[in-house]
Amino acid sequence: MIAPVSDWPALEPRIPRPSLAHLRGHVRDSWDEHQTRFDSAMTRLRASILAVEPDVLLIVGSDQGENFGPRSAPVFEMFLADHLDASAANRRDEGPDLFRVSMPIARDLGLGILNHLCDNGFDVAHTSETSDDYGVGHAITWPLRFLDLMDSELALLPVVTNVWNLPNVPGVRRCVAFGQELREAINAVPSQARVAVLASGGLSHLVLDEELDSRVLAALQSRDLESWHAIGDDELRLAHEKHGLPLRLNGTAEITDWIIADACAQVPAEIIDYVPAYRTESGYGVGMCFAQWGLPA
Fold this sequence. Notes:
The protein is globular and about 55 Å long. The two termini are about 35 Å apart. It is α/β, with parallel strands linked by helices. It has a five-stranded mixed beta sheet with strand order 5-2-6-1-7, with helices on both faces. A two-stranded antiparallel ribbon has the order 3-4. Strands 8-9 form a two-stranded antiparallel ribbon. The protein has helices at about 30-50, 105-120, 140-145, 170-190, 210-220, 235, 240, 255-265; strands at about 55-65, 75-80, 85, 100-105, 125, 155-160, 195-200, 270-280, 285-295. The chain has a single domain (about 55-270), classed as 3-Layer(aba) Sandwich (Protocatechuate 4,5-dioxygenase, Chain B), CATH 3.40.830. The protein is about 30% helix and about 20% strand. Strand 8 and strand 9 form a beta hairpin.
């Protein structure tokens, strides 16, 4: 989303895999089309967010070794400083002084949501500090950059999930329950703030799994949250092992954030676009999903 097409070859992992017959000779020819589709979907998503005139953007995104680690790795954590000061830079080739994000945090609303969650079966951690030079993880800051919301008047409420620090990575059933209770918490807080919820992350990656993504898309479009249980916990947590990759290359676990947002919405999602965006003929790539949930009647 951040890197131009000309830089995409540099994103390809250095771990070799055999070529897949159906991808030979067809990968890079699609990249310009993919970029056009990404841009179109992001324009539509930005318009959809602004059209409902939210006061607060609650972003559900995963920490990926940025602030979670040996010292602390909660299952769920809320960032509740008064203000967010972080970088939305591309960590591959942009330093932490670039693309700075300075936005208020809806702290009072967040504290109310936190209290409700803790009173109803979810021991959610909270923090007002970060240890990483870039600040809060890129799952929170990057959507602000590519949705062009860094200079908006929105307040933020980051909800950060654990995907890389086993064993306390939330499973599918726990994410469904958390999303449902998150909705209850938002409604229970005595606030007039209008809250939009955003799920940050890709579907399957860094090895693209179109079959798994098809089941995720079906669950997103279903009215029955039980449909998520067709996806096994280890399909998300251990996707890297299936493909012989290190944990740091398992982005598939980000699907947990989509599960939370879907359970919070409690209405079927409208899929704006899904692009199986391959980077290599060996299957490296990202399932790029763009979707929106409307307000329930």
